[in-house]
Amino acid sequence: MLNIIPDKEILTNLIGRQLYYVWIELCALVNEKYDMECLWNNGGKAWKYECKFRRGSKTLCALYARENCVGFMIILGKDERAKFELNRDSFSQTIQKIYDETKTYHDGKWLMFEPADTSLFDDFVKLLEIKRKPNRNKNFIENKASNIN
In angstroms, rounded to a whole number, what is the distance separating the alpha carbons of residues 33 and 138? Predict the structure, then answer.
Protein backbone atom coordinates (compact mmCIF):
# COMPACT_ATOMS: atom_id res chain seq x y z
CA MET A 1 0.00 0.00 0.00
CA LEU A 2 1.25 3.46 -0.84
CA ASN A 3 1.48 6.10 1.87
CA ILE A 4 0.74 8.87 -0.62
CA ILE A 5 -1.57 8.28 -3.58
CA PRO A 6 -0.26 10.12 -6.64
CA ASP A 7 -2.39 13.09 -7.67
CA LYS A 8 -2.96 14.62 -11.10
CA GLU A 9 0.27 16.62 -10.99
CA ILE A 10 2.44 13.65 -9.97
CA LEU A 11 0.94 11.37 -12.61
CA THR A 12 1.08 14.02 -15.34
CA ASN A 13 4.75 14.70 -14.58
CA LEU A 14 5.48 10.96 -14.69
CA ILE A 15 3.51 9.78 -17.72
CA GLY A 16 2.86 13.01 -19.61
CA ARG A 17 -0.27 14.97 -20.42
CA GLN A 18 -1.51 12.71 -23.27
CA LEU A 19 -1.07 9.50 -21.27
CA TYR A 20 -2.66 11.10 -18.22
CA TYR A 21 -5.77 11.54 -20.37
CA VAL A 22 -5.56 7.82 -21.31
CA TRP A 23 -5.17 6.95 -17.60
CA ILE A 24 -8.21 9.02 -16.60
CA GLU A 25 -10.31 7.56 -19.41
CA LEU A 26 -9.33 4.00 -18.41
CA CYS A 27 -10.31 4.69 -14.81
CA ALA A 28 -13.61 6.18 -15.96
CA LEU A 29 -14.26 3.16 -18.19
CA VAL A 30 -13.84 0.75 -15.25
CA ASN A 31 -15.74 2.94 -12.78
CA GLU A 32 -18.63 3.40 -15.19
CA LYS A 33 -19.33 -0.33 -15.38
CA TYR A 34 -18.05 -1.75 -12.10
CA ASP A 35 -18.30 -0.99 -8.41
CA MET A 36 -14.68 -1.63 -7.46
CA GLU A 37 -12.21 -0.57 -4.84
CA CYS A 38 -9.04 1.07 -6.19
CA LEU A 39 -5.95 -0.08 -4.31
CA TRP A 40 -2.71 1.82 -4.91
CA ASN A 41 0.69 0.22 -4.54
CA ASN A 42 4.20 0.59 -5.87
CA GLY A 43 4.57 -0.96 -9.29
CA GLY A 44 7.37 -3.40 -8.55
CA LYS A 45 10.55 -3.45 -10.65
CA ALA A 46 9.01 -2.44 -13.98
CA TRP A 47 6.53 0.25 -12.88
CA LYS A 48 6.40 3.18 -10.46
CA TYR A 49 2.71 2.87 -9.50
CA GLU A 50 0.00 0.23 -9.59
CA CYS A 51 -3.73 0.86 -9.21
CA LYS A 52 -5.67 -2.39 -8.80
CA PHE A 53 -9.39 -2.51 -9.31
CA ARG A 54 -10.79 -5.21 -7.08
CA ARG A 55 -13.82 -6.28 -5.16
CA GLY A 56 -13.19 -8.46 -2.15
CA SER A 57 -10.26 -10.68 -2.99
CA LYS A 58 -10.91 -10.70 -6.76
CA THR A 59 -8.93 -8.36 -8.98
CA LEU A 60 -10.65 -7.22 -12.16
CA CYS A 61 -7.71 -5.39 -13.73
CA ALA A 62 -4.83 -3.10 -12.87
CA LEU A 63 -3.37 0.11 -14.22
CA TYR A 64 0.35 0.80 -14.08
CA ALA A 65 2.39 3.97 -14.53
CA ARG A 66 6.06 4.62 -15.20
CA GLU A 67 7.93 7.35 -17.03
CA ASN A 68 6.08 8.11 -20.29
CA CYS A 69 4.12 4.84 -20.16
CA VAL A 70 0.75 3.51 -18.98
CA GLY A 71 0.00 -0.19 -18.56
CA PHE A 72 -3.33 -1.98 -18.43
CA MET A 73 -3.26 -5.57 -17.16
CA ILE A 74 -5.97 -8.15 -17.12
CA ILE A 75 -5.44 -11.78 -16.12
CA LEU A 76 -7.52 -14.41 -17.88
CA GLY A 77 -7.86 -17.75 -16.08
CA LYS A 78 -8.64 -21.07 -17.76
CA ASP A 79 -12.39 -20.53 -18.22
CA GLU A 80 -11.84 -16.92 -19.26
CA ARG A 81 -9.27 -17.97 -21.86
CA ALA A 82 -11.83 -20.40 -23.29
CA LYS A 83 -14.35 -17.55 -23.57
CA PHE A 84 -11.74 -15.40 -25.30
CA GLU A 85 -10.90 -18.20 -27.74
CA LEU A 86 -14.58 -18.61 -28.65
CA ASN A 87 -14.86 -14.90 -29.46
CA ARG A 88 -11.32 -14.05 -30.54
CA ASP A 89 -12.44 -12.83 -33.97
CA SER A 90 -14.43 -10.05 -32.30
CA PHE A 91 -11.16 -8.61 -30.95
CA SER A 92 -8.71 -6.44 -32.87
CA GLN A 93 -5.55 -7.92 -34.36
CA THR A 94 -3.55 -6.03 -31.71
CA ILE A 95 -5.41 -7.74 -28.86
CA GLN A 96 -5.17 -11.16 -30.55
CA LYS A 97 -1.42 -10.72 -31.10
CA ILE A 98 -0.76 -9.76 -27.47
CA TYR A 99 -2.94 -12.65 -26.31
CA ASP A 100 -1.07 -15.12 -28.53
CA GLU A 101 2.36 -13.83 -27.49
CA THR A 102 1.61 -13.82 -23.76
CA LYS A 103 2.92 -16.79 -21.81
CA THR A 104 0.31 -18.93 -20.06
CA TYR A 105 1.10 -19.53 -16.38
CA HIS A 106 -0.60 -21.94 -13.98
CA ASP A 107 -2.99 -19.16 -12.93
CA GLY A 108 -3.68 -17.75 -16.37
CA LYS A 109 -2.48 -15.34 -19.03
CA TRP A 110 -1.28 -12.02 -17.66
CA LEU A 111 -2.15 -9.72 -20.55
CA MET A 112 -0.30 -6.40 -20.42
CA PHE A 113 -1.20 -3.60 -22.77
CA GLU A 114 0.54 -0.24 -23.08
CA PRO A 115 -2.15 1.98 -24.61
CA ALA A 116 -0.97 5.25 -26.14
CA ASP A 117 -4.55 6.36 -26.84
CA THR A 118 -8.14 5.14 -26.41
CA SER A 119 -8.30 3.07 -29.62
CA LEU A 120 -8.26 -0.29 -27.79
CA PHE A 121 -10.87 0.66 -25.19
CA ASP A 122 -13.73 -1.22 -26.87
CA ASP A 123 -11.59 -4.36 -26.72
CA PHE A 124 -10.70 -3.65 -23.09
CA VAL A 125 -14.42 -3.48 -22.26
CA LYS A 126 -14.96 -6.89 -23.91
CA LEU A 127 -12.02 -8.36 -21.98
CA LEU A 128 -13.38 -6.98 -18.71
CA GLU A 129 -16.80 -8.46 -19.51
CA ILE A 130 -15.14 -11.86 -19.95
CA LYS A 131 -13.76 -11.51 -16.41
CA ARG A 132 -16.92 -10.16 -14.84
CA LYS A 133 -20.33 -8.93 -15.91
CA PRO A 134 -20.72 -5.21 -15.33
CA ASN A 135 -22.56 -4.47 -12.10
CA ARG A 136 -23.25 -0.83 -12.81
CA ASN A 137 -25.92 0.46 -15.08
CA LYS A 138 -27.59 3.81 -15.58
CA ASN A 139 -30.13 3.19 -12.79
CA PHE A 140 -27.37 2.14 -10.38
CA ILE A 141 -25.44 5.35 -11.06
CA GLU A 142 -28.55 7.53 -10.80
CA ASN A 143 -29.56 5.89 -7.51
CA LYS A 144 -26.06 6.30 -6.11
CA ALA A 145 -26.02 9.97 -7.17
CA SER A 146 -29.42 10.63 -5.61
CA ASN A 147 -28.25 9.09 -2.32
CA ILE A 148 -25.36 11.57 -2.22
CA ASN A 149 -27.64 14.63 -2.57
Answer: 9
